[in-house]
Amino acid sequence: MSFKKEILYREYIHRENEVLRAPYNPELEFYSAIKLGDVEKTRELCKEPLHKKEGLGMLSENPLQNLKYHFTVTAAMVARYCIEGGMDLSEAYGLSDLYILKADKCRTIEDISSLHSIMCEDYAKHMKNLRKDKVCSLHIARCIDYIYDHLHTRITVDQLVELTG
What we know:
This protein has helices at residues 3-16, 24-35, 39-45, 63-84, 89-105, 109-133, 138-149, 157-164. The chain has 165 residues and is mainly alpha-helical. It is elongated, with a radius of gyration of 19 Å.
């Protein structure tokens, strides 16, 4: 069977079996939270284990290998989003390589899912610290953290004064 026919056949089977793909916008929200260094949102988005997420494609018939492939894709995407957000290229790729090597040694689906959460939170923390590295004052660093943690609420100067003393 030609490659084009195989793709069309797989699409047909997916439609017939009502196989759903993960929606695109939540995926962008996930990568953006990490890129912005929003550690709390990243934790929240990683509460559902990777192996239980709906809409992951089948990249391997072996469930463990399939999850490893998805982990690798996530590591590559997160690295690129973080580079776009200002992380040093060698640091972003170095972290990605390290986590992919760790994933390769995992022997259970649960281990991969656990490592996925750890990796995502680690990248988010690196991004959060990255914006503080450009700040000279501890008071300003605390204000920046507070503002990023409360982007969707009203923030007053008095709140920031109370925060920083």
